[in-house]
Write a structure and sequence with these properties.
This protein is an alpha+beta fold. The protein is built from seven helices and seven strands. 52% of the residues lie in helices and 20% in strands. Strand 4 and strand 5 (127-128) form a beta hairpin. The structure holds ligand C2E (2 copies).
Length: 179
């Protein structure tokens, strides 16, 4: 039974919570933050040009990149922060009791740690690097709905991609840029 439970909640490739379990845990954390009136940030991360990695070096290499990214994010955040794989090359991190400026520091730390990773092709003839784009959404006061945070982080991530990738963008940047 334990094994079945683990399979249902943990992504088998990267060993981090899957989309469904991330959602459930995030909802509980959001509810508590709302109750306590604590700030909270949501990071959405997407590996840049992931399709290119799969197409150029093959799917086993793509898998290695996903695993390495998950391990790197895990090492870079605190125990109480929640990491999940939303699917494909997309991850999310929920940062309880964290303000936007702190979230920016954390996102930058993740972005740099991943850019510093080095990968080798199976024949060791080439090495390559990978980068991530990160969108940040900030929850405070009346904005603790998961769907809303998700949407704002996704829009910020879209802007990071549009602005050249390997970048961190906050939803507040997005709103001020539009003015
Ligand atoms: P900092 O790295 O500039 O982080 C500033 C603040 O951002 C931290 O203040 C904390 O509120 C938030 N923060 C940074 N990283 C994380 C994270 O991974 N998860 C979460 N949830 N929040 C984070 P705080 O806690 O007062 O820490 C002050 C300084 O103490 C940090 O400045 C850092 O220099 C050091 N520090 C604290 N905890 C650790 C740790 O576990 N490892 C390392 N290497 N340094 C730490
Ligand atoms: P942890 O709190 O679970 O943090 C795990 C890792 O996330 C840290 O590994 C560090 O790489 C990163 N991290 C977390 N918070 C911060 C931060 O505020 N700033 C920076 N720059 N990095 C952060 P690390 O440094 O090897 O620390 C391992 C564990 O040691 C931490 O686990 C925490 O339990 C403890 N620790 C380390 N430094 C501090 C500190 O300054 N204050 C406190 N209260 N605990 C610390």
């Amino acid at each position: 039974k334990e094994k079945a439970e683990k399979e249902a909640t943990i992504d088998s490739l990267t060993q981090v919570p899957n989309r469904h379990s991330f959602y459930n845990r995030a909802k509980a954390i959001l509810k508590q933050a709302d109750h306590l009136g604590e700030p909270l940030c949501f990071l959405m991360l997407d590996i840049d040009f992931f399709k290119h990695i799969n197409d150029t070096y093959g799917h086993p290499q793509g898998d290695r990149v996903l695993i390495a990214c998950a391990r790197t994010i895990e090492k870079t955040i605190r125990e109480k922060d929640l990491l999940g794989r939303l699917g494909g090359e997309e991850f999310a991190v929920l940062l309880p009791n964290t303000k936007i400026d702190e979230a920016r520091v954390i996102a930058e730390r993740i972005r740099i740690s991943i850019a510093e990773l080095s990968f080798h092709t199976p024949a060791l003839t080439q090495s390559y690097h990978t980068t991530v784009s990160i969108g940040i959404a900030y929850a405070s006061e009346n904005m603790y709905a998961y769907e809303l945070l998700y949407k704002h982080a996704d829009l910020a991530l879209y802007l990071a991609k549009q602005s050249g990738r390997n970048l961190v963008v906050c939803d507040t940047d997005r709103l001020s840029a539009r003015k």
